[in-house]
Write a structure and sequence with these properties.
Elements lengths: L7 H15 L9 E6 L1 H4 L10 E4 L12 E5 L5 H4 L3 H4 E6 L5 E7 L10 H14 L5 E5 L2 H9 L4 H9 L3 H6 L5 E3 L7 H11 L4 E4 L3 E6 L2 H21 L9 H10 L12
Parallel strand pairs: 7-8
Antiparallel strand pairs: 1-3, 1-6, 2-5, 3-4, 4-5, 6-9, 8-9
Helix pairs in contact: 5-9, 6-10
């Protein structure tokens, strides 16, 4: 039987959390990741389900997520420590038949449990799977310039998206649907999870004002790449704030969308 500690899934999450910490995005125990793993891959490491213990979810997971497996960062865990001790900082769980409990198969060996924002992750997973059955990753982090940008702009999807698109030609190509924006809310609650999931019906990126950002994708690289592009663009915007002479013209943004054959969010650029 294969050792899950040596799996590609644990390796990917360990490497990306280390990278995110080094970027300065995940101070202390900031940030969390959940990774949906298909049962066929789980069976390579666990031929049958043997649960270590049960952990209450604190809400009812969507029908689409019942009996699904997730690799999840732990509550109170530091991203910098994942690569050194994955088995304490990560856990592989299975959502039960009723959607109320996570059965622990592996990890949290020090008695821990899933991130407090796991309900928000599951709500976003459910929303995105309805749009893209291949979606596997929900990633939350605290990128500095994205938070700065959110503090300086109204909590408006169109305004935030337009500022990003007009600051970096890469932006409209990477996230042509734009970015959703939520006002400052209490994190770790079902309310912010529900609001995020609602935005996820339209966007792959949701900014939490004064807090951070959520990104999703079919792979770790896709979710990280979305957030990385937003943060780089937000940095450009914030550094040049008040001194912009060469803002990207609307016609160039439209030209980029046409060149890369992407459908952009209506109402952001005058066509």
């Amino acid at each position: 039987m294969k050792n899950f500690l040596e799996s590609c899934f644990v390796k990917e999450v360990s490497e990306i959390t280390n990278n995110m910490y080094r970027q300065g995005w995940d101070e202390r125990n900031g940030g969390n990741i959940s990774y949906l793993i298909d049962e066929e891959y789980v069976r390579e490491y666990f031929p049958k389900d043997v649960f270590l213990r049960d952990i209450e979810l604190g809400f009812t997971a969507d029908e689409s997520l019942k009996n699904k497996y997730f690799l999840v960062t732990g509550t109170g865990k530091y991203f910098k420590n994942v690569i050194k001790d994955p088995e304490s900082n990560l856990g592989l769980v299975k959502i039960d038949n009723n959607g109320h409990v996570a059965h622990l198969l592996w990890g949290y060996k020090d008695g821990g449990k899933m991130t407090s924002e796991f309900p928000a992750h599951l709500m976003s997973h459910a929303a995105r799977l309805k749009l893209n059955p291949k979606n596997r990753v929900v990633m939350h982090t605290h990128p500095t310039y994205t938070i700065c940008m959110g503090a300086c702009l109204p909590t408006d999807d169109v305004i935030f998206t337009r500022k990003l698109w007009k600051s970096n030609t890469e932006a409209v190509v990477v996230f042509p649907e734009g970015i959703g924006v939520l006002p400052c809310m209490i994190c770790g609650t079902n309310e912010i999870g529900e609001a995020t999931a609602k935005k996820m019906e339209e966007y792959r990126l949701v900014s939490w004002t004064n807090h951070g950002i959520y990104g999703v994708g079919e792979t770790i690289d896709e979710a990280f790449g979305l957030i990385e592009t937003v943060e780089k663009t937000a940095q450009i915007y914030m550094i040049s704030l008040g001194h912009v002479v060469n803002e990207i013209p609307d016609e160039v943004i439209l030209g980029l969308a046409k060149l890369w054959n992407v459908k952009i969010k209506p109402g952001v650029i005058d066509e």
